[in-house]
């Protein structure tokens, strides 16, 4: 509740600062967004405005999520969720559930993430909030991919794509096309994947979304890599890596380093593969991305096993096994066990 003695000028200034922070989020200046979100929370707590504090808590949680720092995000998102429940504000509740789902997804807690996202989608549906429902469905589709349910993910991505086209959401359309392309790639349908990625990239070039285009080019390179065109893939990955570093996109950098490692592994250049995997591993550790960390350790273990360094391979698999206990992924637990047994 808002005390009567709050200075209207201070609140106006706070609203302006929040709009500034949201512009940084929209333009993907996530480090600046995080800094402003921290300051805005401190300020509104001084002003003792509970409703705006809830907004500031959610903003700060989202800022940490955008910087791929899910543990820190959870602290503030849970507080925002409690305030939303106290206020019985259904829209606020859906927003916090959505962001909590994203945080648990980043941590690899997929079942918990799915439950939260489905609850958010249900609320958005009841509120007839199409934009919110689209965001929730997109996140649910990505979770199905993480579960290996690529046909189901593909159906959802197509559903979301139609909804976004209805709303004229061009940036969202590109994100859905990327999701469609990734699902086709996982299903081995590479021509369809490349077509979807090219469509997404055209939209991103038109709206000058440099960060989004880098992600799409990364996906496109992976598809060509799967077709056997490793030279095109390597050239594209190095181009994307420069873009992610210029934008200070640490997660994008980690993914690209991982893809470079995989490509060098494919052509038998194990030294370069291990160098890039090691750099990717460091980035994933900094981001507390356990799923990414495990994937790198398994790839490195496979290389060490292939070149006869059995003890190093065992160390990688054991480390991956200790990490997988922290996430909800039984198939991955079984895969790691089989790799350990194979040695």
Brief summary:
The chain is mostly helical and 343 residues long. It has helices spanning 8-26, 30-47, 50-66, 70-87, 90-106, 110-126, 130-146, 150-167, 170-186, 190-206, 210-226, 230-246, 250-266, 270-286, 290-306, 310-324, 330-342. The model has no long low-confidence stretch (mean pLDDT 93).
Number of strands: 0
Provide mean pLDDT, rounded: 93
In sequence order, what are the helices and strands, one letter per element? HHHHHHHHHHHHHHHHH
Backbone structural class:
mainly alpha
Number of helices: 17
Description:
By secondary structure, this protein is mainly α. 84% of the residues lie in helices and 0% in strands. It is built from 17 helices and no strands. It has helices spanning 8-26, 30-47, 50-66, 70-87, 90-106, 110-126, 130-146, 150-167, 170-186, 190-206, 210-226, 230-246, 250-266, 270-286, 290-306, 310-324, 330-342. Helix 1 runs antiparallel to helix 2 and helix 2 runs antiparallel to helix 3. The longest helix is centred in the N-terminal third of the chain and has 19 residues, at 8-26.
Q: How would you summarize the topology of this molecule?
A:
Layout: H1 8-26, H2 30-47, H3 50-66, H4 70-87, H5 90-106, H6 110-126, H7 130-146, H8 150-167, H9 170-186, H10 190-206, H11 210-226, H12 230-246, H13 250-266, H14 270-286, H15 290-306, H16 310-324, H17 330-342
Helix pairs in contact: 1-2, 2-3, 3-4, 3-5, 4-5, 5-6, 5-7, 6-7, 7-8, 8-9, 9-10, 9-11, 10-11, 11-12, 11-13, 12-13, 13-14, 13-15, 14-15, 15-16, 16-17
